[in-house]
Amino acid sequence: MVSPGTPSAGTVTRGTTPKAKTKAKAKPKRRKLDPVKVWANTMRRYRPGLPQYVIDQLTERYGAVVWERRLDPVSELILTILTQNTADINAEVAFQRLREAYPGTGPVEEHHPGIGWGGIGLPPGTAPDWQAVENAELMELTNVIRPGGLANQKAPRLQATLRRIREEHGDYSLEFLGDLPALEARDWLTAIPGIGKKTASILLLFCFGTPLMPVDRHVERVSRRIGLLPKKGTDDQAHDFYLGLLEPDQMYAAHVLLIHHGRAICHAQRPEHERCPVRDRCRFVDPKAP
User: Fold this and answer.
1) Overall pTM surpassing 0.70 (yes/no)
2) What residues contact 14, with CB distance under 8 A and at least 6 apart?
3) Rounded distance between C-alpha atoms, residue 198 and residue 190, angstroms
4) Torsions phi, psi of 50, nearest 5?
5) Which of 72, 69, 176 is nearest to 127 (CA)?
6) 27: how many CB neighbours lie within 10 A of its CB?
7) How is residue 21 annotated by DSSP?
8) Terminal-to-terminal C-alpha distance of the chain
9) C-alpha Rg value of the chain to the nearest Å
10) I need a labelling partner for 236 at 20 to 30 A (CA). Which of 8, 93, 221, 242 fits?
11) Rounded to an integer, what distance in angstroms lies between the CA atom of residue 134 and that of residue 161?
């Protein structure tokens, strides 16, 4: 019972000041972790030496690969755009038709694509006249490259790409990219609409030996099965995961050998486990593989 004159709960006595509520201290923001570094550290801790093991085993099976330039950079870029969503052999036909329809006058180039390429290789020839390709009537160009597939999409993309190169540098040369740091050169290329990290990385790796890792569907499939790439993550992120995982001098061999392995043994359907040289450390064969 409350006696008379005793303040009831919740009332403020005259002459007293209510206590101010103290503000809760804001929690410090947690620094966002870099997924590339996290993945690289995880691999080094739990699966040490896996990238070099894969390269060594595939080299033993398919032979050592040695870098050499395949084509001049603009030809490599145009050929790579032609390969998008089609077989390499179809892109070769489309590129050869560009040579014939818009003949250039430059030096004759030998195309030595190596085991990572899915076609038969281009015959010796000069690069097309890129100014003539850029200025061609769109329907005409579309018909020229039609055997390569998706010609209605690729013809305007080729012309827009050539236009961008000319407007930026006054000619149709991309040799300057060889003097830029790897990521700066890749960023320059990916600023062109329709060119992603894969296309940019192919050009830079095969024309200049720039230490970048192109990830196509074969590389991605084989890499996720082995466990070189995390199960989750976008195709775009895969290129950067590899930059944290591989040494610069491993990237060319890793790219070429993984592509070839994906075509030869690690098929999308019914991979041939009994023939696979990396099965002892493949998480697709054994989820607990080291």
Assistant:
1) yes
2) none
3) 9
4) -65, -45
5) 72
6) 6
7) P
8) 74
9) 28
10) 93
11) 9
Q: Report the 10 Å Cβ neighbour count for 289.
A: 16
> Looking at the DSSP assignment, which residues form a beta bridge with residue 281?
none
Helices (H), 102-234: 130-135, 138-144, 151-169, 182-190, 197-208, 217-226
Among residues 55, 119, 101, which one has the least CA distance to residue 257? 55
* CATH class assigned to 73-208: mainly alpha
CB 201 within 8 A of CB 220: no
Q: pLDDT for 14-47, tens place per residue?
A: 555 555 566 666 676 777 889 999 999 999 999 9
Domains of the chain by residue range: 47-65+213-281, 73-208
d(CA 251, CA 228): 13
- Cβ contacts of residue 150 below 8 Å, gap of 6+? 84, 85, 86
With H, G, I as helix, E, B as strand and everything else as coil, classify residue 61: helix
Q: Rounded distance, CA 28 to CA 145, Å?
A: 57
Whole-number Cα distances in Å, 261 to 217, 220, 240, 264, 268: 12, 12, 21, 5, 11
Distance CA 213, CA 205 (A): 8
Give the C-alpha separation, 255 to 151, whole Å.
28
As beta bridge partners, residue 109 has 125
Average pLDDT over residues 115-142: 97
